[in-house]
What we know:
Number of domains: 1
Strand content: 15-25%
Helix content: 40-55%
Largest sheet: 7 strands, mixed
Low-confidence stretches: none
CATH superfamily: Vaccinia Virus protein VP39
CATH topology: Rossmann fold
CATH architecture: 3-Layer(aba) Sandwich
Mean pLDDT: 95
Strand order of the largest sheet: 3-2-1-4-5-7-6
Radius of gyration: 17 Å
CATH class: Alpha Beta
Distance between the termini: 30 Å
Number of helices: 9
Amino acid sequence: xxxxxxxxxxxxxxxxxxxxxxxxxxxxxxxxxxxxxxxxxxxxxxxxxxxxxxxxxxxxxxxxxxxxxxxxxxxxxxxxxxxxxxxxxxxxxxxxxxxxxxxxxxxxxxxxxxxxxxxxxxxxxxxxxxxxxxxxxxxxxxxxxxxxxxxxxxxxxxxxxxxxxxxxxxxxxxxxxxxxxxxxxxxxxxxxxxxxxxxxxxxxxxxxxxxxxxxxxxxxxxxxxxxxxxxxx
Length: 233
């Protein structure tokens, strides 16, 4: 996967600035929990792919005290932040350093999961690998298992992409207190920008259906931000 995420400053800036400015971030996590309650019920075993500092895993473990989580990320700086953030769940969480470009089973084994989540990670993979990873996720889910991807997807046109960028830059400037011109320059020159390999939402939903997921849908979308997934029958 993209190597810029091994840089401590890249990881810090995302966690402390850009993620904090993501529009409707709280709503996306609330929706994740609603999807779990509706489709799955209390999960016992969770896998968080591209976990960052473990935000999604913490959100689930806080609601479901019987759940245990495996958190996976290829970035050393991200995992260092996760070790600290996950301290109160240290008896219910295992952290692994592994790359999503490699087969999942190599890192996590073949024991099935009730729930697999990912947040702003899979878009760093080439489209062919995105699709094959979705297939590996399907194989790792037990019957009735739920997959939810909170993701950055491609805009339908350059005009819409420009709107997303402008509104996100506004949010970043407001959250950080930096001058907007500085934020705009930093945003477009960020080292990890080249790591993004965005795919539109429609083909990704199609891949999930072709693989065998049911109840596939985009449950939330705001410009380039989406929450989508499905159920293994």
